[in-house]
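Order emerges. For instance:

***
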Amino acid sequence: MTAQTRAPNPADSHGAAAPTPTGTAAPTPRAGGNAGAGAGGNAGAGAGGNAGAGPGGNPIGTGGNPAGTGRNPTGTGTNDTAGAKRIAAAFQRAAGQGRAALIPYVVAGYPDHATSLAAALAAADAGADLLEIGLPYSDPLADGATLQRATTAALRAGATLDGSVSLLREIAAARPDLPLVPMCYANQILGGGDGRAVATCLAEAGASGVIVADLTPDEGLRFEAVARDVGLAVVYLIAPTTTAARRAVVARRSGGFLYCVSLVGVTGARASLPPSVRGLVTSARADSPVPVAVGFGVSRPAHVRLLVGTGADGVIVASALVDALGSDGRDVQSLARLVTELSAATRR
C-alpha cells in the first residue's frame, strides 16, 4: 500500500524501512507494537466500530477484544488534554445556542493543496463547529467509494503527510477558534512505533484531536500517553455491533467526543439512515461522559434533523461534501451551500 510520507524523525529507531506492497517504505513494526492498517494487525475501527473486512481478515465492527471492567486503568484516556477541552468548548457553544455541533470533513490535498484549503475555510465559514480533515492514505479500510476516489486523487497529485500538516497549520492560522481533528489510519501515525513524531507535528500545527480509525483502545495505551504529552484528544469509534459493555469502556477512553458510526458499512452518502440509529445514539449518550457525534451515511439536512432528534451532540458529514465538490473536486461554492443547509438543520 502507498502510505503517506511520514514526518521526519531523526530519533526514530523503530526499525529499518520495509517495502509495502506498492513499494513505498514504511517502518518495520516492532514486536508487540501495533501493526495498524495494512500490516495485518488491527482489524477494528476505533472500538470495533466500522463494518467491512479489515486487513487482518476479521470483520470490523464485531467487537474485537474483550470489553474489560468498564473502568479506566490509571493514566488512560485523553479527555483532560488541552485539545479535548477545546473540542468540549465547541460542543458546549453549539449546545448553548440550542443546536447540535456540525462537523464537516475535507480531504487534505484534494484535488490539490490550495483547493483543499479553500474548501476547509468555506466549510468553517458556512457553519462548521469543528472540522475533520482526512489525511490521504491508499488503504482507507473505513472509507467508501467517494472518499477512496478523493484520497487516491490527492495522493496522485502529490499529497504527503508533510503537506497535510502544512494544511492544518494554514487552517489553524486562518480560523484559530475552530477545533481541527485529523482522521488517519494507524500505519500513518504509528508506523510500528508510538506515534510521537506525527502526533507532535499534528499538535504543533494546531490539531485539537485525532481520529485513528483502526486503532482500538486495547492497543491505544501507548499512543494515548503520547497524545497526553502533546495535548491531543484521541477520539475512538463505536458501531451498531459494539456490545453495551464494550461501548461503555470505549466511551470512557475517548477524548473530546465519541464517534458513533451510524451503520454497519463503510463511509458514503446514503438515501436514508437505519432505523436502529435512534436506539444506538440513545444508548451511546447514556454510556458516554463525552459528547456523542454521529457519522457515516449522513448526507442530507433531513438526516441531520433525524439525528438531532435522537439527542446526538454532533453530526459528522463527509462523503456528501466531497461529492458536492463535483467530479473535479473544485466546486467549493456547492460545498459551502451544503454546509449552510446542514448547519440550519442542527437546531433542536
In short: The mean pLDDT is 81. The radius of gyration is 18 Å. Residues 82-96 form the longest helix (15 residues).
